[in-house]
Amino acid sequence: MLRGIDPILSPELLRILRAMGHGDEIVIADANFPGEASAREFVRLDGIDATRVLKAVLSVMPLDSFVDDPAITMQMVDDPDGIPPVVAEFQAVINKIADNPAEIRPLERFAFYDRAREAFAVIQTGERRFYGNVILKKGVLPPEQG
User: Fold this and answer.
1) Tens-digit pLDDT profile for residues 91-106
2) CB burial of residue 91 (10 Å; 0-12, 13-18, 19+)
3) Most buried residue among 28, 30, 103, 128 by CB atoms closer than 10 A?
4) Domain 20-137 adopts which CATH fold?
């Protein structure tokens, strides 16, 4: 165990988050997402919901402040303008924890899958709610002052 590090951030996941560079993307995926088939790097966090994983990831990873869409979710197929409850929870987490809070942008389902395949890594969660998927773009940490 490490002080100040969320215990769900395994050594493997911490290595991935640390290895990512500015502009790299990571997918936090629900239990139904084709995670392993889509991933270059793949981590399973079975039994843990996606909002919990989002909180843990944002506790150590900055969101990109140089783009308009550092957080992207999958658009609902039957209601493209709708916001699933899990996505509303994602937005609340981003607003509270992210160093650079941003509005989540929806992306059409198949475009989301295509983008996920290009991501640095996929974290497969135990999230059972539909549309419990989010792509985050890693930002930068400013130089320390002093």
Assistant:
1) 999 999 999 999 999 9
2) middle
3) 28
4) RbsD-like fold (3.40.1650)
